[in-house]
Every structure is written in C-alpha cells, then in structure tokens.
Design goal:
Layout lengths: L2 H14 L1 H37 L5 E6 L9 H5 L8 H6 L6 E16 L2 E10 L3 H4 L4 E4 L13 E4 L1 H8 L8 E4 L2 E9 L4 E2 L2 E2 L3 E5 H7 L7 E6 L5 H15 L6 E5 H44 L1 H9 L4 H37 L9 H27 L3 H8 L1
Parallel strand pairs: 3-10, 5-7
Antiparallel strand pairs: 1-11, 1-12, 2-3, 2-6, 2-11, 4-7, 5-10, 6-7, 8-9
Helix pairs in contact: 1-11, 2-9, 2-11, 2-12, 9-11, 9-12, 10-13, 11-12
C-alpha cells in the first residue's frame, strides 16, 4: 500500500469518529501547551532576573559587610568577633587599586520628602558622583552630584522623574529647596524615566551625597560599595585586590564579602534554568497521560473495526501493512494534538506578555522542540500495542465476528 493510500485511510478513520478523535487531540494538545506555557514562564523569569542584574552596571565588583563563607580560626577574631562596618574611608581606599575604574559607596534608607505643601515617603540613596554613570542613569535636567570630598555632606539632591511630577507638577524643579528628613537640600538634577529594577523604582528615588545620607540615617556605615573594573578580564584580579585591601584595613580580619556581578548572574542563570527544566519535565508528564488515552482510543478502534481488518487481510494485505495503517492513525492524532498544543501554548505566552509587558515570556526553542517530539513519539509508542493487536487478527475470525 502506498504512503498516500495509508494517509488517506488514516484520515478517513480519524474523521469517521470525530468525538473520539477530538478528545485524543485535545488531551495531547493540553500536554504540549502546558510545556510551552510553563517553560515560557520559567525562562521568562530567568531572562527578567538576569536582565535586571545586568542593568545595574558592567564589570562590577560588589563589597558588602559581613562574611558569608566559613573559615578557620583567626587570632584577630579572638580579640573582636564583631564584624566591622564598611565606611566611606574604606571605599575611598579602593580608588587607588590597580584595575579599578570607579568606586561608588552606597548608603540607602527611607525618608520623607516635602515641598510646596506636599509630602511623601521616598527611597534615599547616598552615593558619590560616580554612581550615576555606573548605573547608566541619564539626567533629564540639571547636573550630577558634585565630585568633591565624600565626607562632605553637600545639601543637594537628584530626584526621580515621578518625584518631580508629584511635587512640582509643571513648575520647574531645578534650584528648588525641598526638605528630606530634617535637612533642607537644593535640587540640582532630575533623572530620566527608568522604571522598576531590583525592587527599587528609580523614578521614585532621591539621590544625595553619601555623607548627607549617613547624617540623615544617623549612621556611619555603608550598605554596599560598588567597584567598576577597567575591563571584564580584570574583574577576578580586582576582586582579590579589593578583598585584600579591606582585610588590611580591618586588622587582618576578613569580615566582608566581595562578589562579582558575573558570579551573581551565573548563579541566577543556573538556578532559574534548572527551574525551567523542572517545570517543563513536570508538564511533560501530561504527554504520557495523553499517550495512554491515544492507546485506549486505538484499542477501541481495533475492536470496532475487526470486520474492516478482516476484509483487508482476506484481500491479501500483510500484517505489516495493517500495523502501518494503525500507526499512521496514531501518528496523525498525535501530530494534530501537537500542532494545536503548540498554537495554544504560543497564544498563552503571548497573553502573558500582554498582561505583563516587562516579563519576556518566550518559550525556549529546545522546550518547543522537545514538547513536539515527545508528543509524536508518545503517540507512536502507545500506538504500537493496538497496531500489533490488529495485525495479529485472523481474517476468518475477524469476518465472522463482524458478521
């Protein structure tokens, strides 16, 4: 029997029992759609987090107070076990290290900002002038923080775009005096709209000199120190030098953690990649269930079509031809289900992107290929048993049963 004849036979069998065929196709399509949508969610989460961390800058090394690793006994810790805080002087000492392009101390907290009878709570970031270019922020109006002594608390501020709109509306904000906490500062710059990133909405951010932020929060410690290396290859050496310099300044005690941006990105990439793989695997289980349903449908078809099978065998059709006929029918049901599931999955991912525009919910190519291949393979695999049962039927008995 030619391939065209087999396909025609399979199509006639599929369309001859529309409800049964539709249920098989629907079950297979749900499995494929689940794999596409869930992997789109997982991979979208990975892309979103990696993109957010990439946006904080390039070639970054980050120092934070406290130690996350476990080490041996250090005589220095016998004298004092309390980790020292990172200070402005610690950050300034890193400027002289080879391979370091820029350093930005960072002190953060919340405070109130008031102007023209309006009051609201904002996130305040105390930084140096190098913070704005390191974070790739752009000024819509005005100028950056003054590039002077980091210990000098100049009463100036840069505000986010939304803060400007809420406090000043259509009136100019540059040069205006506002109250931040218990300090009066003059606005010298307004950031361009940026939006949300890493839990911080830059449009609602107020940037002040780091010494002023420490005075506002009555603290002399830093939240983080951002160090920008000259180049990507220099990052490992800069990390070691930063760690060594801070250790020297803290009397030989390694009480800080120094991480690289690449290490953070790689960790999140691995974790969320594994999560995507796991949810895709769980969704693929539904494909096995759909395959069992296809097998059940095919077994019923063999029972109902014994007369047809007996007639084919009486006309000289070999067992191999009968097997191919039923496998073709199973393959056609699986292919239709896989195609419908692919379209439903892509529609679901599109809907997610429309509802959450910042979330890049695109199913990875490997997941789509794996879902389609698994659906076809499952349909064929579970179609083998019905096809073999049909091929083993005796033509005389089959015709007698039908009669």
């Amino acid at each position: 029997m030619r391939l065209a004849d087999r396909l025609h036979f399979a199509r006639a069998a599929v369309t001859g029992a529309p409800l049964r065929s539709a249920l098989s196709v629907l079950a297979m399509s749900i499995g494929v759609a689940a794999v596409v949508v869930l992997t789109a969610l997982g991979d979208g989460a990975r892309r979103y987090v990696v993109g957010q961390f990439s946006s904080i800058g390039t070639n970054l090394v980050i120092a934070l107070p406290g130690r996350t690793g476990t080490g041996g006994f250090n005589p220095a810790t016998a004298i004092t076990s309390t980790p020292r805080d990172l200070t402005i002087d610690d950050a300034a000492s890193l400027l002289r290290l080879p391979g370091v392009a820029r350093v930005a101390p960072l002190a953060v907290g919340t405070s109130e900002i008031a102007a023209q009878g309006r009051l609201r709570e904002v996130m305040v970031a105390g930084v140096s002038s190098s913070y704005v270019p390191m974070r790739n922020f752009e000024l819509a109006q005005g100028q950056n923080l003054p590039d002077d002594d980091w210990n000098r608390a100049a009463p100036v501020a840069i505000i986010g775009h939304k803060i400007r709109d809420e406090l000043f509306g259509s009136t100019p904000a540059l040069g205006q005096l506002v109250r931040v906490g218990d300090r009066r500062v003059r606005i010298i710059g307004v950031l361009k709209p940026v939006g949300q990133g890493l839990g911080m909405n830059t449009d609602e951010l107020v940037i002040v000199p780091v010494a002023l932020a420490q005075a506002l929060f009555n603290s002399n410690t830093l939240f983080r120190v951002l160090i920008e290396a000259n180049s990507r290859p220099a990052i490992p050496e800069v990390r070691e030098r930063v760690l060594q310099r801070l250790k020297e300044r803290h009397r030989g005690e390694e009480d800080v953690t120094v991480i690289t941006q690449d290490a953070v990105l790689a960790t999140f990439d691995r974790l969320l990649g594994a999560l995507t793989l796991a949810v895709g695997g769980i969704a693929a289980i539904s494909l096995a269930v759909a395959g069992i349903l296809v097998m059940n449908v095919m077994l019923v078809a063999v029972t109902q079509r014994t007369g047809e099978i007996g007639l084919l065998k009486a006309l000289g059709a070999p067992a191999a031809t009968i097997r191919r006929l039923f496998l073709s029918e199973a393959a056609m049901l699986s292919a239709l289900g896989a195609l419908l599931g692919y379209l439903l999955g892509q529609a679901g991912a599109f809907l997610l992107r429309q509802l959450f525009p910042v979330f890049p919910a695109y199913a990875p190519d490997w997941a789509v290929f794996a879902a389609l291949a698994t659906a076809l393979l499952t349909g064929l695999l579970f179609g083998v048993l019905p096809a073999r049962r049909a091929a083993r039927l005796d033509p005389v008995e089959a015709l007698m049963k039908h009669g």
